[in-house]
Design goal:
The complex is a heterodimer. Chain A is an alpha/beta fold. Chain A is 39% helix and 23% strand. Chain A has 11 helices and 10 strands. Bound molecules: adenosine-5'-triphosphate and magnesium ion.
Chain lengths: 262, 338
């Protein structure tokens, strides 16, 4: 079995307190893996260790067989790691289109010199980036906002903008940290459809989400974190019945009404 | 002060409007010098060179979110590089081309450690660099020491020697136009977008693949190159350089001009430089009137920077050009940006 992402015993502490402790998991190419757990379980921290926003204190992160835990975030982006952060980390002052065009940075080349001199290669690449960005805006359902300053977009659209930006890099591994929080029902459905489509195209996705029904519907496999450790790992059906997960996260009410989770 | 001034830049105004401004400035730069009386021609040369440096400072502050309080150091490096090369027999045009390269190399060497610093720390570090450079220059006999470097030949382009101020006015205009054009091209490009992105969220920019450190260094070098190029023209124009020609006040002047004109705009630095230079000139004329004390010119020019900066922060926090743009937009029917 080939492995897209292997996390091997990673730990990360803040001021002596572990946020992520000895976490291991492997994700196959094309898999949609959900990471769930209570607030403060270490989900976002784990993403930051994979994406390179934080340095690991122990352990390894392997992407398609290559160790990446010592690489800075921009190098991991070039290797195909795309990130949608929890909350909206968008670029203020740039239009929505420009925000997404920045997403193409990892896979394009033109530098200062070719820009300053307006070389033909620069124009060609610029056009290609723009087209690709427009496609991504469209897929994320926010094409109408293309020429608006990003900070003027409503929160839901800012979320979608982050996703469009990540897609513009054509990642091999996409990290989605609570992409559905704050979205309205229709937006949530659109997002679920988009995630399903991306998965069908073979993209490997890690999804952190508190909406358990949303997760159960989409995920191939679920890893459950609590207090920085993996407490369960399995198919949605297995996770739903796991007593440790019910105790730590899902709660007894979830067992009674499996589709009624918040 | 930096936190309030370093607002995220927008690309608005880099499109059609900026093209018109650019055309307007170019025409003005070509048509104005022959119409100016001789004594104002010197001011014009000074303006165009100062504006060139300010374009770089504005790029650095407005788009890369960094403050340099030592930009006159790169102006000096470019000037001394061109001057020394010319004095040692290097063709003056070659010297002029090498001046920005040498300034940029200096910026890369200095920037590698300096750019780890942010905000005020970077501002003070660049200020320190300039002070160190000035004291080194004052002791360097090979560069003329405190007395200065004398006998710099005039600029010769294709066998034509620029002797008159008018020639230098054109040379300075050309250098300014080049700086504005390059700044504009960079800002709307992939690299410029990455810089503007990094100025508002480093985390998200890095996650998009932007090597932020390298890019910041590149802008630092680009701004230094602009200062170096202006410095090169300055050296040939004056024919004489001394450490005293590059005081710390000059670095502050560049920052004031950039802020007054409007950070995050392409034409702002040019407008800012024009306003400040004209003001200083007018006040100088007043201060040198009979009956004024001998220290009046110096005091007044310091006062201009302080007063202009304070007024600007209070009443035009985004600078002249954005304010003008808003005013014209309010009167004209709304046009959709593209
Ligand atoms: N930069 C930081 N400095 C100090 N502590 C941190 C930092 N980032 C996270 N933590 C701590 O690490 C723990 C895990 O946080 P993390 O954000 O990874 O949780 P999470 O599972 O994403 O929670 P949520 O569901 O609320 O987003 C928390 O106790 C948090 O307070
Ligand atoms: Mg989180």
């Amino acid at each position: 079995m080939t492995v897209r992402l292997a996390v091997g015993g990673v730990s990360r502490a803040f001021g002596g307190v572990y946020a992520v402790r000895d976490v291991s998991l492997t994700v196959a190419p094309g898999e949609l893996r959900a990471i769930i757990g209570p607030n403060g379980a270490g989900k976002s921290t784990l993403f930051a260790l994979i994406g390179g926003q934080l340095a690991t204190h122990h352990g390894s992160v392997t992407l398609d067989g290559a160790r990446v835990e010592r690489l800075p975030a921009h190098r991991r982006a070039r290797l195909g790691v795309g990130v949608v952060f929890q909350g909206a980390r968008i670029f203020h002052g740039l239009t929505a289109l420009e925000n997404v065009m920045v997403g193409a940075h990892a896979t394009t080349r033109a530098g200062f010199l070719s820009a300053a001199l307006r070389l033909p290669a620069h124009h060609r690449e610029e056009r290609a980036i723009r087209e690709r960005a427009l496609t991504c805006l469209d897929r994320a359902g926010i094409a109408d906002w293309a020429h608006r300053p990003a900070e003027e977009l409503p929160l839901g659209q800012q979320r979608a903008l982050q996703l469009a930006r990540a897609l513009c890099a054509r990642p091999r591994l996409l990290l989605l940290d609570e992409p559905a929080s704050g979205l309205r029902a229709a937006e949530r459905e659109h997002l679920a459809g988009l995630i399903t489509a991306l998965r069908a195209e073979g993209l490997t996705i890690l999804l952190v989400e508190h909406d358990v029904a949303f997760v159960m519907r989409l995920a191939d496999r679920i890893t459950v974190l609590d207090l920085g450790r993996v407490i369960a790992d399995g198919s949605p059906a297995e996770i739903r019945e796991n007593p440790r997960v019910i105790e730590a996260y899902l709660g007894p009410s979830f067992v009674r009404s499996p589709h009624g989770a918040s | 002060m930096t936190a309030g001034l370093l607002r995220p830049a927008s690309a608005a105004g880099t499109g059609r409007a900026a093209r018109w401004w650019l055309a307007g400035f170019t025409i003005l730069g070509l048509a104005l010098p022959p119409l100016l009386p001789e004594r104002h021609l010197a001011t014009f040369v000074l303006f165009a060179l100062t504006a060139t440096v300010t374009v770089g400072v504005s790029l650095l502050m407005g788009y890369a979110g960094q403050v340099s309080l030592g930009q006159a150091a790169f102006y000096a490096i470019g000037a001394y590089a061109a001057g020394l090369l010319a004095v040692h027999g290097v063709p003056s045009l070659l010297g002029l081309l090498l001046a920005p390269v040498i300034a940029a190399v200096a910026a890369v060497l200095l920037g590698a450690p300096l750019l780890r610093l942010r905000g005020h720390h970077l501002a003070f570090a660049t200020l320190a660099v300039q002070l160190i450079l000035l004291s080194l220059l004052a002791q360097a006999d090979w560069a003329g020491g405190a007395i200065g470097l004398q006998g710099i030949p005039r600029l010769t382009i294709l066998g034509y020697e620029l002797r008159e101020d008018l020639g230098y006015a054109y040379a300075a205009s050309l250098v300014l136009a080049l700086a504005v054009l390059i700044a504009r091209n960079v800002i709307v490009s992939r690299a410029g977008r990455a810089l503007r992105a990094a100025a508002t969220s480093e985390t998200a920019a890095a996650a998009s693949g932007v090597p932020i450190g390298r890019y910041r260094l590149a802008v630092f070098a680009l701004s230094a190159a602009m200062a170096g190029l202006a410095g090169g023209v300055y050296a040939y124009y004056l024919g004489y350089l001394s450490p005293g020609s590059f005081p710390v006040l000059l670095s502050i002047e560049f920052v004031v001009m950039a802020v007054v004109g409007g950070l995050g705009t392409i034409t702002g630095p040019v407008a800012g430089a024009a306003v400040v230079i004209v003001l200083v000139q007018v006040l100088n004329t007043l201060a040198t009137r009979p009956g004024m004390p001998g220290y009046a010119p110096a005091v007044l020019s310091y006062a201009v920077y302080a007063v202009v900066l304070i007024l600007c922060v209070l009443y035009l926090p985004k600078g002249l050009v954005p304010a003008l743009r808003r005013a014209t937009r309010a009167t004209a029917p709304d046009r959709r940006q593209s």
